[in-house]
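Weekly modeling sync, notes
Attendees: S.R. (lead), two postdocs, one rotation student

Agenda item 3: backlog of single-chain predictions. S.R. asked that every request posted to the team notebook include the full sequence so nobody has to chase files. The rotation student volunteered to paste the first one in as an example of the format we agreed on. Action items at the bottom.

Example entry:
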Amino acid sequence: DLQARRRLGLTATLVREDGRESDVFSLIGPKRFDAPWKEIEAQGYIAPADCVEVRVNLTDSERLAYATAEAEEKYRFCATTATKRKVTEALVRKHQGEQTLVIGQYIDQLDELGEHLDAPVIKGETSNAQREKLFGAFRNGEISVLVVSKVANFSIDLP
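Predicted structure, as returned to the notebook:
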């Protein structure tokens, strides 16, 4: 129970692990201001980002499985196909030696990627001490690839 005369919520990314972002508005009221990330980037508050769309062609068997999947299963299916994993691995290899952050939603997929990429995985069950250790190693260049779930959306300052 959050009782107060006034409430203020500030966030760079309104994402919750449990998917209940709308609950925030019932606690603090509607959003009053939204700054476009490109403007914030131009002002130097966040690191520059290049966004590139990479289209992944499914195999015949993956296309068939997608076509016959239930509507609620289709998003997860496309997000976790073996073809997409292979493309992700190829992109990481292409950028070998560069700081590479692999972000995903499905824990089983992230664990699999971590194994294939020989990279540590940070997820909800990772202790805060272990998270900080891995984030520090990533910042310092001791590890160049880090696989993370949505927990990395929360106040993490990474290169």
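Discussion: group reviewed the output briefly. Helices lie at 22-28, 37-42, 60-68, 71-79, 82-94, 107-117, 128-139.
Action items: rotation student to repeat for the remaining queue; S.R. to check formatting next week.
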